Amino acid sequence: MTAEHVTTEPEMSEETLRSRMLGVVADWSSDQRSFKSASWGKAMMWIFLVSDTFVFSCFLISYMTVRMSTTVEWPHPSEIFALDIGGKKIPLILIAIMTFDLITSSGTMAMAVNFAYARERKKAAMLMLATAFFGAAFVGMQAFEWTKLIHEGVRPWGNPFGAAQFGSSFFMITGFHGFHVSIGVIFLLIVARAVWRGDYDVGRRGFFTSRKGRYEIVEIMGLYWHFVDLVWVFIFAFFYLW
Amino acid sequence: MTAMTDDTTHAHAHAHAPPPAHAAQPAAQAHGQQHPIKLYLLVWTLLFVLSACSYLVDYFDFHGLLRWTLIIVFMMLKAGLIVAVFMHMAWERLALVVAILTPPLAVLVLMAMMAWEGDYTNYLRVFFFGA
User: Fold this and answer.
1) Does B83 touch chain A (CB under 8 A)?
2) Among A9, A10, A49, A93, which one is least packed by beta carbons within 10 Å?
3) A120: Cβ–Cβ under 8 A, 6 or more apart, which residues?
């Protein structure tokens, strides 16, 4: 009896890996909801994001496959995405600015979640508007980038710089990501409006769901937004830097 | 009743002592993720620094293994910070973490297969078309 006490007690005081693993088993075998720290809304967003991960993975893996299999030299992103600033050609600078812009939007989003839970409506809404602004700026820069490349003759079926597959990979991957950012901006604006008006305090029903919302929606939408930033991290590494 | 069953299950896992609060959340507990702003600012700064580092890999025109290693390391660090802190994975229960983070590992299998395939296609093109 005493021996058992000795062995189990250190485990109680802090969360060990063993106790967390036992928690996994207990959560999944308890014949109830498995995700005890996440509401259904949050769990569903996570599951959607996992499926979205597979979509983007497929794009990036097809890009890898065509880049590995082509015998023509792959165009140099470093030169293609360079900009002339003050008469000097700076490599990849536009993409670097887009990266910083998106990271900044993630920072403001993370803080918006905090203020939403603290019921500081105006601050949360303003931070969400800032996030939407940075997101829109990102899409704007992407539109600029597309315009520039299309003027230079880049097409999904060919380009003057090298392997023809560059164009199709570029438009597909950045296009799909840009689409995600655009949807995120719209989502942000809708939630920011609801937070600003205090919809979640007075229990006003949503125009789409006809149900009362909770401040948790800010966190859930934050998950989506951070995911978009996360995908960009991979696109930046594999498409632009590799 | 739901909460009771949960407590019983838990008591089995951690005999005798009252379980730590975090490990034994009853079913319908919807707690908000609120963390110090300072932490977010720190992560934000780190992400800036890491992005600057990966940009410098290109700026200084590193090549070969060094370039690929640095790109992957900075990428994984950034991804880890975003998922753990911004997406609050560090504070979720392990059941959710495991359910979300393990399935994407299957992508690595597809990646390996397609790398093999791409390499083979390239070999055939060089062999038959001498390009």
Assistant:
1) yes
2) A10
3) none
Q: Could you tell me the domains of chain A?
A: 1-37 (no CATH), 44-241 (1.20.120.80)
Angstrom CA distances, A15 to A78, A232, B20, stand at 47, 34, 8
Q: Mark yes or no for CB contact B118/A67 under 8 Å.
A: yes
How many domains would you assign to chain B?
A: 2
What is the distance between the alpha carbons of residues A165 and B102, in angstroms, rounded to a whole number?
31
Look at A49 and B75 and tell me if their CB atoms are within 8 Å: no
Q: How much is the ipTM here?
A: 0.86
Q: Give contacts of B6 with chain A, Cβ < 8 Å.
A: 26, 30, 32, 36
Residue A89: phi and psi, rounded to 5, are: -85, 115
CA A122 to chain centre: 24
Residue B111, in any domain of the structure: yes
The reported pLDDT for the residue numbered A13 is: 53
Helix (H, G, I), strand (E, B) or coil at A17: helix
Return phi, psi of residue A91, to 5°: -65, 135
- Whether residue B79 is contained in a domain is answered as yes
Residues 26 through 65 of chain B touching chain A, CB cutoff 8 Å: 26-27, 29-35, 37, 40-41, 43-44, 47-48, 51, 54-55, 57-59, 61
Stretches in chain A below the pLDDT threshold 50: 1-11
Domain that holds residue B68: 35-91
Chain A: give the shortest CA distance to residue B113, in Å: 10
Task: Tell me the whole-structure pTM to 2 decimals.
Answer: 0.84
**Domain-located, residue B15:** no
The per-residue pLDDT for range A164-182, each reduced to its tens digit, is 999 999 999 999 999 999 9
pLDDT of residue B31: 56
From B51's Cα to the closest Cα of chain A, the distance in A is 7
